[in-house]
Design brief:
Largest sheet: 10 strands, mixed
Strand order of the largest sheet: 9-8-7-6-5-4-3-12-13-14
Number of strands: 14
Radius of gyration: 20 Å
Number of helices: 12
Shape: globular
Structural class: alpha/beta
Distance between the termini: 49 Å
Helix content: 25-40%
Order of helices and strands: EEEHHEHEHEHHEHEHEEEHEEEHHH
Strand content: 15-25%
Length: 360
């Protein structure tokens, strides 16, 4: 029997397009800045324009607090690196007990022993660190694998020192041709350090310079992933494959404990019914694909935003399974095999093999 999905937590009136339940999940882009310049990132942090991205006003965060404290899940980033937010520790303090439902993805570079102690002491829900291979990480992300591995080891040691069950420790792995055979060895090395989950998604190609990294051009990937998932389970590690068209993807699993993608048989796409994304500018984004609402959390209340006519019209269309405009060929909804039809920017995002960290 299938475990509860996002759909089970949605209360919706199809006639009006209005939500009868609040957003269950929030994504807050605390900052649009990042201390790395990964070659596969949709934002070119290697340019002055990329480096100039700002921060979410703390007043806006405070305004959202009543909703955040009632949400099932709070994610403290979208694209930017949350640990470089100037008031990150104040965010944790203001969330208080809701930290246990707060989650973050990080590149791990800014993690210090003092911050690791605080994250564990506050029992943050989960921390997922991005690693793209034991050999490939330096070329893809600009930092050696060993540096990030040691940050995860520090978190695991802190959990043991505090006898804490949280945060759950995970790894986000972007699968591409160059690193597909590194996945199993990475799980073998990280499981003893306390890693409990590995989230695998295929690379989505944003720049021409990465066309050769189309993982769907490789044979045997589905079989490889299924074998890796089975092996990870023997080590007590849950591997979730999402945003793909492989049989190993979460949507094809009979048992689902953690749903990462927006696939929904009932609503077409669960994102506009289940979650709300607030960019560092305050602008509200309706989905993982990047559909902008034109609504501003700096000016409007969440009550005004959540059932705004823009949202109700979108929900009616998705409920009728009409995928139009940006929703067409959505990699997050239909799987990224068709990501080659997405608008791809010309040129090379960053040096494909070696470049210094982005200056900050």
């Amino acid at each position: 029997m299938r475990s509860p999905s996002k759909d089970d937590h949605i209360r919706y009136d199809p006639a009006s397009g209005r939500m009868l339940s609040p957003p269950r999940q929030f994504f807050l882009e605390l900052t649009g800045r990042c201390n790395l310049a990964c070659v596969h990132c949709p934002v070119d942090y290697g340019t002055p324009e990329g480096r100039a991205r700002g921060e979410l006003p703390f007043d806006t965060f405070e305004k959202l607090l009543p909703w955040l404290r009632e949400a099932q899940s709070i994610n403290l980033n979208i694209v930017g690196e949350p640990l470089v937010y100037s008031r990150f520790r104040e965010v944790l303090e203001r969330l208080g007990p809701a930290c246990e439902r707060a989650h973050l993805n990080t590149n791990g570079v800014a993690l210090t022993p003092a911050l690791a102690r605080e994250l564990v002491a506050r029992r943050v829900g989960s921390i997922v660190v991005s690693i793209d291979g034991r050999e490939s990480n330096a070329a893809v992300r600009g930092v050696p694998y060993e540096l990030v591995r040691d940050k995860l080891a520090m978190l695991g040691a802190e959990k043991r020192a505090q006898a804490a069950a949280q945060p759950i420790l995970g790894v986000a792995y972007t699968l591409m041709p160059r690193n597909r055979f590194e996945l199993r060895a990475l799980v073998d090395e990280l499981a003893p350090l306390g890693v409990q989950a590995v989230h695998v998604q295929p690379l989505m190609i944003f720049y021409e310079g990465l066309r050769d990294e189309n993982i769907y051009a490789c044979a045997g990937v589905d079989e490889l992933l299924q074998e890796c998932k089975a092996h990870a389970a023997t080590l007590g590690v849950e591997m979730v494959v999402f945003r793909s068209q492989w049989k190993a993807d979460e949507r094809n699993q009979s048992e689902l404990r953690l749903q990462l993608g927006p696939y929904s048989e009932t609503y077409g796409c669960s994102d506009p019914y289940f979650e709300m994304k607030v960019l560092y500018t305050g602008e509200v984004q309706a989905c993982s694909r990047g559909l902008l609402t034109g609504l501003d959390a700096n000016r409007l209340t969440l009550e005004e935003i959540w059932n705004h006519p823009w949202y109700t019209n979108l929900r009616k269309r998705l409920y009728a399974k009409r995928f139009e405009e940006l929703c067409t060929h959505c990699s997050f909804q239909f799987g990224s095999q068709e990501n080659q039809v997405m608008p791809i920017r010309t040129g090379v995002h960053h040096s494909h093999e070696a470049r210094p960290l982005a200056a900050r």
